[in-house]
Amino acid sequence: MASRAGTVAQPQDLVDLTALLDAYYDVSPDLSDPGQRVAFGTSGHRGSSLKASFNEPHILAITQAIVEYRAGQGITGPLYMAKDTHGLSEPAQNSALEVLAANGVHVLIDARHGYTPTPALSHAILTHNRNAAPGAPQADGIVVTPSHNPPGDGGFKYNPPHGGPADTDATGWIANRANELLENGLRGVKRIPVAEALAAGTTGKFDFLSSYVDDLPSVLDLNAIREAGVRIGADPMGGASVDYWGEIGERHHLNLTVVNPTVDPQWAFMTLDWDEKIRMDCSSPSAMASLINRMSDGAKFDVATGNDADADRHGIVTPDGGLMNPNHYLAVAIDYLYRHRTGWNPQSVIGKTLVSSSIIDRVAESLGRKLVEVPVGFKWFVPGLLSGEGAFGGEESAGASFNKMDGSVWTTDKDGILLALLASEITAVTGKSPSQLYKGLTDQFGDPVYARIDAAATREQKAALGKLSPSDVTATELAGETITAKLTEAPGNGAAIGGLKVVTENAWFAARPSGTEDVYKIYAESFKGAEHLKQVQAEAKALVDGVIS
């Protein structure tokens, strides 16, 4: 049977919203099943009410745990709360409000009764804390989103006063306490009805949209975009950025068209992802097929962009190159920004995850900038963005942020709207599309081939992979080249990577266990072509299997 990837979803692909919402309220988790307990990954707790992994008991327990965590940390300022367009997001926000209000927490929700992108929440937290008097109570936040995950999923994420994703110490404490509360039948959870919570004196409103949109000139050269007349097509992909894009165009007088303003918790308008699931992954050619086809059919846009459901990821489509590989765009963005942001700290470093393309290493060297390579997870970029010592941080999964023109912090969470608009600034200032500029980088530094594959692994094998040391790897060559590095810690900060990275002069691979499936992921890249990459992948799998079996 031919794959339906890239084709519009059919009725049988759509989540049953009634069943989804009923399960949220009616189903209680079986705590003997690890998959039904609270577990924070790199971006909070995620699951589905239909799988008993994201239900009201989870949210009540997590929220009470956050209340206790912030009290223990002395965080007494307002808690900003955002939600995206997933079907489970509003019920989860209501459940959280019941607990927060009962505990007397000052909560600020969207003044427009709309949806709030993750970067707008990060921006709000940082703005509040920057403007607060010395010693004044600090703000933090909660984002209710499973990011690009399918419509049947929900997500719940905590951002402490630094505005970015909570670190593992915080999420570990919150998850452990939440599971304790679940085990005790939610005894210890304070709660009032949602109507009372919304009417409580501690529940207020905040205009996330104006705070974010009106501050964009501090981080982007919108004058250049406007004066060049760059024609922008922005696709919110049914997500939280839907109202933001229209306001950005109107308030800043840009030639901007919102190509699809539809919000539908079933996402019936989406094209199916590679595995025939609905997934709002703006880095996937299959999920982005509608926008790509619009460009190839002659849409008069100089740049077209997509965002996932909470707008922390970006997809860049150009007339000459189609959908850009996220690694390619990161390299272009870094090269452009570090040449044009004269207000940044001249010593500011470039941050990348260790599974991002090595062309970034070569760009950094050409710029005379230090490269800091960290494990997967945007939380690792937070300190640098806050201090200005790391003015850009980016992940291979199309998530990045960078500092304001003056070098001060913009967001400490991924900002897909920002990176999408940057593509228009780049086009306006250079007169070239980001894909044309990437071609120039490959002419200078070589043209890498990059891919990720999954390999089957048991839970025990995944655990073994996560605990490897370099001495466990005895191989000296990879795909005909001498191995120059065997890494189980990130060279940028010494943090454990939870897997293995092996490097040669012209290639590398990294293997990491999946947190949700019985597979491990092999990221690999070669500057010697597609056939060499296949050899790297095959030898990588054999090497890892030999070590963990």
What's the quick description here?
The protein is α/β, with parallel strands linked by helices and 549 residues long.
Our Rg estimate from Cα atoms comes to 23 Å
Percentage of residues in DSSP E strands: 15-25%
State the name of the first-level CATH class of the largest domain: Alpha Beta
Structural shape:
globular
CATH H-level name of the largest domain... which superfamily? Alpha-D-Glucose-1,6-Bisphosphate, subunit A, domain 3
Q: Helix amount, in percent?
A: 25-40%
Mean pLDDT: 95
- Residue ranges: pLDDT <50 for 5 or more in a row? none
- Through-space gap between termini: 35 Å
CATH architecture descriptor name of the largest domain:
3-Layer(aba) Sandwich
Tally of discrete structural domains = 3
Quote the CATH topology of the largest domain. Alpha-D-Glucose-1,6-Bisphosphate, Chain A, domain 3
Oligomer: single chain
How many strands appear in the DSSP assignment? 23
Largest sheet: 7 strands, mixed
| Contiguous helical run count | 17
Q: From the helix content, strand content and strand pairing, which structural class follows?
A: alpha/beta
- Lateral strand order in the biggest sheet: 1-2-6-5-3-4-7
